[in-house]
Design brief:
By secondary structure, the protein is mostly beta strands. The chain folds into two domains: about 110 residues, Immunoglobulin-like; about 180 residues, Glucose Permease (Domain IIA) (Distorted Sandwich). The protein contains two helices and 23 strands. The strands form four sheets. Strands 12, 15, 16, 17, 18, 19, 20, 21, 22 and 23 form a ten-stranded antiparallel sheet that branches. The two termini are about 25 Å apart.
Length: about 300
Amino acid sequence: MHRVAGTTVWKKFSAFLVLSSSLISGLLTVPLWAAELRLSAPPRLGAAVMLEVRGVSEQAQVTGRWQQQELPFTADHRALLPLDMEAPVGVATLEVTIKEPGRVVERLQGSYTVAPRIYKEEPITLPKAKVEPDPEVLARIERESRAITATYERRGGRFGYDAGFQQPVQGRFSGVFGSRRVLNGKPRKPHNGVDIAAPQDTPVVAAAAGVVALVGVDYFFTGNTLVLDHGHGVVTLYAHLASMAVQEGQWVAAGQVVGAVGMSGRATGPHLHWGALVRQQRVDPLMLPGVGASDHSR
């Protein structure tokens, strides 16, 4: 394994070849080629890195598995590799198979050591009704939660993050990814996004191109809520919005205004809660390819 200018590269000599049965007899006359795997950053808990397969033709069939899960590849042979915020530490494995017309089948393998990640603890004080809702409100919360989580199961679709991702609004990080929320003294689930404080009605833009998967109005926890589907099981969520400027099913471009910062739902001040999931793996949106990760998110 070699590292070049912050990029991880597996060369051909680190791979092993598996012969296609139709090519065994012509083995000595089949030329070899130097495919390689490049990652945008080393994998770590709560992050998604871009894998790019280089040195292959447009006609190549590229498949792979990351952590024993099948990888969806784009037409130009790229895929996002996620590690959930609470994924097991240890060794993460990658396998890629390349089938070029008229050539032997090439399989490349790699492994990474995944270290523990320490998350912060955040004490928050809210009105009791926002922390301990009555049964009727709990039923509402369940309905709204199902509507949001249904978008996490989307697969396929139009690929929209070919240019990477961007931060949807600028501001102060008031809540960090992975922090353990302690509401009125009671521990809660880890925060699966980042909070960006900004003035009321500041425009919020799409982190990448995608289709609007959900327009949720005045949800109990997340207020006015948008979910964008960027294809291949990659979704981003925008919560506590003051207003929303798109409709379900609409295709939006990267950087297009989709809403405005607000404090709808359970919020103590105007801010954007921005979340990201890659095939249901919770990842830090500030560590998506193209977004400059802030120290506040680590």
